[in-house]
Write a structure and sequence with these properties.
Structural class: alpha/beta
Order of helices and strands: EEHEHHEEHEHEEEE
Strand order of the largest sheet: 5-4-3-6-1-7-10-9
Shape: globular
Strand content: 25-35%
Number of helices: 5
Length: 202
């Protein structure tokens, strides 16, 4: 079954966007960019909210930009060929290989999990990722932790009074000081229900 992943750049104090709305500090160096490109190859579909979709629209036609180098063009080709589902109550149409979501997030995730083929289901955007976390849909959290404290903004992890146990799957330190950590959600079985795959919430 396909895994649902949440993968983003995050400050050391836990934010994906700073208090001023900026996130230029997440711009990857060459080594991290190659890593992100490799991770993108493992994605089968990208679910994203309106704001992230609009932020990423540039890349739908970026291959026409003669100033782009070979690694950036490689990532652009991966991105434009990737199926995307956009969750929005205001957009009436989307571009490229994207379509508007026809149902709720849980329904969309289950639909893609049932589809034949490989590749992770990536959740993009803070609001959508928080909803996925609240619904217990996320299987893996992947964070590229940048060596900066931004002091506030939009948090990577939603603030909720619920414990979620994680197990470390992978970690890596880049020359730039960025640290990558990949954690899998531990889904415990409920006592007396050996068939249950739901997480035990504390």
């Amino acid at each position: 079954m396909r895994s649902v992943i949440s993968s983003m750049g995050v400050s050391l104090d836990g934010y994906i966007v700073g208090p001023d709305g900026g996130f230029a500090w997440t711009e990857p160096g060459d080594e991290v960019f190659r890593f992100v490109t490799d991770e993108t190859r493992g994605i089968g579909v990208y679910l994203l909210g309106r704001r992230l979709y609009e932020t990423m629209l540039y890349w739908e036609t970026a291959d026409r930009d003669p100033s782009l180098d070979a690694p950036t063009l490689e990532w652009t080709e991966l991105w434009t060929s990737l199926p995307k589902v956009v969750f929005s109550t205001t957009l009436s149409a989307v571009q490229g290989r994207a379509r508007l979501a026809s149902g709720g997030l849980a329904e969309e995730v289950e639909r893609w999990r049932a589809e034949p083929g490989e590749g992770d289901i990536a959740i993009g955007g803070a609001t959508l990722a928080a909803e996925a976390a609240e619904l217990g849909l996320i299987d893996e959290y992947r964070a590229r932790v940048h060596p900066v404290l931004v002091g506030g903004g939009i948090p990577f992890f939603p603030r909720r009074e619920r414990r979620v146990d994680l197990e470390l799957v992978e970690n890596r330190t880049f020359d730039s000081g960025v640290v990558y950590v990949r954690y899998r959600v531990v889904r415990q079985r409920h006592h007396g229900d050996p068939s249950s795959g739901r997480r035990a919430d504390v």
